[in-house]
Every structure is written in structure tokens, then in C-alpha cells.
């Protein structure tokens, strides 16, 4: 089995940039402001990444540890 390589810093920065743009421009419920529109009109022109990479960046979670409110604490 192949080992997973750690994400490079530039990839993380690109993903964060894409996520920020989507947060600003995407409007749920509006078909003319869907994520596909954001990709075609903004992301593709600015960054030149593929559609597949765009959606992979959106799925990618940040390295921050998210605290589960249901998790019991020791102290």
C-alpha cells in the first residue's frame, strides 16, 4: 500500500483561498450563484485549477482539531 504524503503548504494555502472565495460568492438556494458558477466565473480564471481539484479543495478539512461537544472530558 502506498503511504499518504502530507499536504504541502502551498496546497493548503490554495485550498483556503478557494474556500474563502466560495464563502463570499456562493449563495445557497440560488441556481445562478451555485458552486459550479463560482468555479467557472471566478476560480478557473484566477487560479487555473481543474474542476476536480476545486471540489477536492472544498472537501478538504483544515488541520485544526475540531472539538466534539459530545466528547467527555477528563479534567
Produce a short descriptive summary.
With 75 residues, the protein is mainly α. It has helices at residues 9-25, 35-47, 51-59.
Task: Give the N-to-C terminal Cα separation.
Answer: 39 Å
Radius of gyration, whole Å: 16 Å
Helix segment tally: 3
Low-confidence stretches: none
Protein structure class: mainly alpha
Number of strands: 0
- Biggest β-sheet strands, sense, barrel: none
Proportion of residues in extended strands? under 5%
Report the helical percentage.
40-55%
Mean of the pLDDT scores? 84
SSE pattern = HHH
Shape: flat
Explain the overall architecture:
The protein is mainly α and 75 residues long. The chain has a domain at 30-61. Helices cover 52% and strands 0% of the residues. It has 3 helices and no strands. The protein has helices at residues 9-25, 35-47, 51-59. Helix 1 (9-25) crosses helix 2 (35-47). The longest helix has 17 residues, at 9-25. The radius of gyration is 16 Å and the shape is flat. The termini are far apart.
Amino acid at each position: 500500500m502506498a503511504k499518504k504524503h502530507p499536504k504541502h503548504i502551498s496546497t493548503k494555502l490554495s485550498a483556503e483561498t478557494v474556500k474563502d472565495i466560495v464563502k463570499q460568492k456562493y449563495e445557497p438556494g440560488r441556481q445562478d450563484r451555485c458552486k459550479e458558477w463560482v468555479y467557472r466565473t471566478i476560480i478557473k480564471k484566477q487560479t487555473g485549477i481543474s474542476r476536480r481539484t476545486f471540489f477536492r479543495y472544498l472537501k478538504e478539512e483544515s488541520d485544526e482539531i475540531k472539538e466534539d461537544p459530545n466528547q467527555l472530558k477528563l479534567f
